[in-house]
Amino acid sequence: MKAIAYYQSLPIDHADSLQDIELPAPTPGARDLLVEVRAISVNPVDTKIRRNVQPENGQAKVLGWDVAGVVKAVGSEVSLFQPGDEVFYAGALTRPGGNAELHLVDERIVGKRPQGLDFAQSAALPLTAITAWELLFDRLGITEGRADQGQSLLVVGAAGGVGSILVQLARQLTGLTVIGTASRPETQAWVRELGAHHVIDHSQPLAAELKRIGIDSVTHVASLTQTDQHLEQLVEALAPQGKLALIDDPAGLDVLKLKRKSISLHWEFMYTRSMFETRDMIEQHKLLDRVSELIDAGVLKTTVGEHFGRIDAANLKRAHALLESGKAKGKIVLEGF
């Protein structure tokens, strides 16, 4: 089967940073689906692993943790899907990625893809939807409905992949006042289109930006990027006993800054369930099915920002380069081999 992989960690502009290769087709385990990959999307985790994780013993490492495709075969203990089902999922970091014609995935982290979207639009959603859902409802403890009316959520980096779905979830499913941050006119317009009540500029002091729109403090913060750079401003912006959730990898984080206001800190990593095969691992199957239903009901929409064409090394290099530039809007998708 065709696949895109790398043999050593290299800058994305190096000729061998990603390569078109051939690999044997995989065989499903007991709870695995064998999926024919129709479309993928690219995430910051792909670029981080390519830069920092050397493949073992000269082996090829396949990236890619967002897939939409068709089930070709199932393992002996599979009960949720059957061949022919159209699915979408984010896979597991402990297994080969989905930048290949065929891919194995545990059925407990797979959902039925939205029928109102095509494969590329569907592939944009799984990783970011799971991350945003878990961050909002599991880590920050927000409840669906209007119980949180009067409270507020500041989303730092709202125009990116996770921010693009988080803004929608918070606006459509909760009573929160949603404030998104974006620094360029086009990304600010995108965040407004997604449903944010307010949009502010994270290249300016955040507390001052909030005051400019008449908000003295917020009860919840989702910091999706550059948390270490924004931490003091986030602490200033948070109300006493507020909640701070993050997904990025700050070089350092002085948590003592949170003490005076009794701010609680929450980390979201959507691969925890699959990495440790937690007892509630199947919750990711359930939430993906729910996201699919919300898409088909018109409550949520896909977050595709760019379609880069077919799935090959050249187009994946372009996608990695755009993500590394920090200027991506929404999700980058690729489709077909």
Structural class: alpha/beta
Number of strands: 16
**What is the domain total for the residues?**
2
* Unreliable stretches: none
Beta fraction? 15-25%
Biggest sheet: strands, sense, closure?
7 strands, mixed
**How many helical elements?**
10
Helix content: 25-40%
The CATH architecture designation of the largest domain is Alpha-Beta Complex
How far is the first residue's CA from the last residue's CA?
10 Å
* CATH homolog superfamily of the largest domain: Medium-chain alcohol dehydrogenases, catalytic domain
Q: H/E series, N to C?
A: EEEHEEEEEHHEHEHEHEHEEHHEHE
CATH class of the largest domain: Alpha Beta
User: Mean pLDDT score, rounded?
Assistant: 96
Alpha carbon gyration radius = 20 Å
CATH topology of the largest domain: Quinone Oxidoreductase, Chain A, domain 1
How would you describe this protein?
The protein starts with a strand and ends with a strand. The strands form 3 sheets. Strands 3, 5, 6, 7, 8, 15 and 16 form a 7-stranded mixed β-sheet that branches. Strands 11-10-9-12-13-14 form a 6-stranded parallel β-sheet, sandwiched between helices. A 3-stranded antiparallel β-sheet has the order 2-1-4, with helices on one face. It folds into 2 domains: 2-128 and 272-335, Medium-chain alcohol dehydrogenases, catalytic domain (Quinone Oxidoreductase, Chain A, domain 1); 144-268, Rossmann fold. It has 337 residues and is of the alpha/beta class. It is 30% helix and 25% strand. Helix 3 (126-139) packs across helix 4 (161-173) and helix 3 packs across helix 9 (283-296). The chain has helices at 44-52, 119-123, 126-139, 161-173, 185-194, 206-212, 227-237, 272-276, 283-296, 313-325; strands at 2-6, 19-22, 32-42, 61-62, 67-74, 86-89, 102-106, 110-112, 152-156, 177-181, 198-200, 218-223, 238-246, 264-267, 304-307, 331-335.
